[in-house]
Structures are given as C-alpha cells and as structure tokens.
Amino acid sequence: DAGVIQSPRHEVTEMGQEVTLRCKPISGHDYLFWYRQTMMRGLELLIYFNNNVPIDDSGMPEDRFSAKMPNASFSTLKIQPSEPRDSAVYFCASSFTSGGSLSYNEQFFGPGTRLTVL
Amino acid sequence: GENVEQHPSTLSVQEGDSAVIKCTYSDSASNYFPWYKQELGKRPQLIIDIRSNVGEKKDQRIAVTLNKTAKHFSLHITETQPEDSAVYFCAASYSGGGADGLTFGKGTHLIIQP
Lengths: 118, 114
Hints:
The complex is a heterodimer. Chain A is 0% helix and 53% strand. Chain A contains no helices and eleven strands. In chain A, the strands form two sheets. In chain A, strands 2, 4, 5, 6, 9, 10 and 11 form a seven-stranded mixed beta sheet that branches. Chain A starts with a strand and ends with a strand. In chain B, strands 2, 4, 5, 9, 10 and 11 form a six-stranded mixed beta sheet that branches. Chain B has no helices and eleven strands. The mean pLDDT of chain B is 94. By secondary structure, chain B is an all-beta fold. Classes of the chains: A mainly beta, B mainly beta. The interface between A and B is medium-sized, with 29 and 27 residues.
C-alpha cells in the first residue's frame, strides 16, 4: 500500500483565496483525521470522520474551514477565504478499528501539505 | 477536553546515554497513549504505544511506562544513537469500540551529542 496520500505537498496562496487540500486514506481504513501543525500551537486535531461521516469537528477553528469525505477513498479540507494565520502544515491520518472494546487506534499520517498564505 | 503536558521541551544527551520524556494527561477516560517521532520536514511516525490495561511496554531500545493513578506516562530510550535525534510527541485518546482524535503534547526536541 502507498500509505496516506496528500496533495498538494506545498501550496502558496494570497490572502482571501480559496485553498483545497486533498487526502486519500489507506485502503480499508474506516477513520480519517485532519490535523494542523504550527510552531505556536503544535499538532491540533481539526476534524475526523468514521465511515465517511464527520464525528467531531470541534477543532475546526472557524467557519472559513470546511471538510468533506464524499467516499471512503477521498477527503478534502477547504479554507475560504484564507488568511496568513492559516499558514501551517496540514496532516491527514487514517486508522482502522475492529470495533471491539480494545480496538486498535494506530493512526498513520500522510506526508502533509505545507500551506503558506501571503 | 483532554489536555496533555509534555516535558522537557528540549533534551540533550550524550550518545549511548538514556533519554526520558514525560507526559501527563487530564482525562481519566483516556486509555490509549501513543508516542510519535518526527524528523525535520517529515510526517509523525508511531514508534510505540500503550493501552491503559498494561503498565509497561518495551520494544528493543524504547519502552513506555504508564501510571494511571497519577495520569502520567513516560518514554525511555536506552543506548541513544545519532539517528534518535528528532522531535518526539506523546498523545492521548479514548479508544473504546472506535477511534478518537489524538490530543498531542507540545513535543520534545531530542538532541544526541556525539
């Protein structure tokens, strides 16, 4: 398996523009997570999905951020309009759980998208 | 929500010595505690994890201990090598019948001095 795939790897845009980040989870994984990493705030959970359904979006910073998962192999994170403070590395991660009381929760991270908003 | 504190923020050790990184968590319901290693410009990669039903887990030169009563867990790296230099993150989550998002500590920059 190729692992979690993210695109683009780097994105430079101007303030006010729309940005769309893409993620393909590992085949067969039923959970997908979006994280953001900055020097100031570290690694933060933004939102996660189970079987394509959003479960917890309490980490999404504001209404400018939205995420979708139209099918099991694709998710997007959209920022509209983008602002300089959105500059960060955005990671997508996926995991598989058996559903039992001790279900496994190892999360595999993608390579990340480095977003710079000028 | 969960809050994870991690110490120290930077740790410098001589090659061959041991390194210990400590984390505390706030939510007593958390039962899954992974450790990730992140090299500069790379993705976080899981190096070891522990569940709340065990107190210690070891994998070659790395080990993790968990004290549920005190709500803290630690990463131990023995016989450190130059390739151990990286940023290490602890995390906590609840996993019971499904997954949950991870709450990460702020990271420890481990420097191995030759």
